[in-house]
Amino acid sequence: MSPPPRLPFRFRFRPRSTLALWGLVLAFAGCDGRSPQTQSVPDAGACVQGNCPQPDSGSPVDPSGTRVRIAAFNVHRLFDTVCDTGSCGGSNYEELPTEAEFEAQVSQLGRAITALNADIVMLEEVETQNSLDGLLKKVPQFPESRLGETYTKASVDVAVLSRHAITEVRSHRNLYIYRPDGSATRFSRDLLEVHVDVDGTRVIVFAAHFRSKVDDDPGRRLAEANASRDIVLQSATEFPDAMIVLGGDLNDIPGSEPINALDQALLRVAKDRPDNETWTYFYSGRGQAIDHLYLAPNGGGVYVPGSFRVAREPTGGYGGSDHGAVYADFALTPR
User: Fold this and answer.
1) Dihedral angle over CA of 17, 209, 139, 202, nearest 10
2) What is the dihedral sign for C-alpha 14, 20, 22, 23?
3) Scanning 54, 105, 231, 270, which has the fewest C-beta atoms within 10 Å of its C-beta?
């Protein structure tokens, strides 16, 4: 099936008629077992050529507001014990852990996630619901969870864990997005949008995992960044009283085109920490900050200054993963 013709915007999503069909499809394969609301099309021209709302880095924190800790953690190839591709283990992409190996991995990850003391955790590289269920047994403090399944064999998907009630889930995996050269693509993994009720305030998290630099496609990663930014901004318009956070393994460092695209309109909360404290991944002899948290310019809450942290071992990685986990505290606006 060919993508729709490109209209004269830098990035453009599918027409409403196609999205309506997509909404019907998701009603049968919805993330939370019910028909999601029909999603309107983000304004692809809302943040082009400097026309972005400016992120607020100096909002005061109201001490009476409820504090919420939000984390993002690439758990590194959490494969279950079933071989879906027929080619597993050894040099194959799909790993096939034994029951004992899987149990050891989820136990170590569970202890690491518990130590973050977070209210909401966005995960990357979870293969299946079975993988997630194994991990959930180790973190009973999270009664609510959702997996952003892409329905491909040996996929490494995103997920969200929450101490609070999940009230709505939206998927963005089927949206057309566009590289700078105009070619159409989609998100590498789902951009999973999860709405959580925290003491009566709507908190929306977007769990993201942008294109890897293995067999690199930088245009796709830039398309993901631009599309994610516009979707988050649309959500901020739709839910002006919500607190909205985007986070995950974005596979690029500050100063890169994708991170600059997000920085145009969203607050990267690590900005108030020294660079040598924000790296999350060790590559080619140096630490790189490729896992990030962003706050949307909205009325539901503010970043608690100085609270951004990276949980990692001295040589890098955390909880058996090759990534550190990032987390920060936010104060909800009192109602």
Assistant:
1) -50
2) positive
3) 54
- Number of helices (H), then strands (E), belonging to the chain: the values are 5, 17
The amino acid that residue 204 corresponds to is I
How many residues in the chain?
A: 335
The list of the chain residues with pLDDT below 70 reads 1-51, 57-58
Residue-level pLDDT at 6: 46
CA distances from 131 to 112, 124, 274 (A): 16, 12, 35
Helix%, strand%, coil% for the chain, nearest 5: 20, 30, 50
| pTM, to two decimals | 0.86
Contact status, residue 55 vs residue 297, Cβ threshold 8 Å = yes
Instruction: Read off the DSSP letter of residue 290.
Output: -
- Write the pLDDT tens digit of every residue in 127-183: 999 999 999 999 999 999 999 999 999 999 999 999 999 999 999 999 999 999 999
Contact 124, 133 (CB under 8 A): no
Tokens of 5: 């013709």
- List pLDDT tens digits, range 50-85: 568 878 765 788 777 899 999 999 999 999 999 999
- DSSP-assigned beta bridge partners for residue 321: 318
Distance of CA 213 to the CA centre of its chain: 17
Nearby residues of 225 by Cβ (< 8 Å), 6 or more positions away: 210, 250, 252, 257, 258, 259, 261, 262
The structure tokens listed for 239 are 């839910």
Q: Which two tokens stand for residue 105?
A: 């991995």
Using CA of residue 44, residue 50, residue 53, residue 54, what is the dihedral sign? positive
Cβ neighbours of residue 189 closer than 8 Å, sequence gap 6 or more:
124, 148, 150, 155, 156, 157, 158, 173, 208, 209
Closest to 239 (Cα-Cα) out of 231, 250, 249: 231
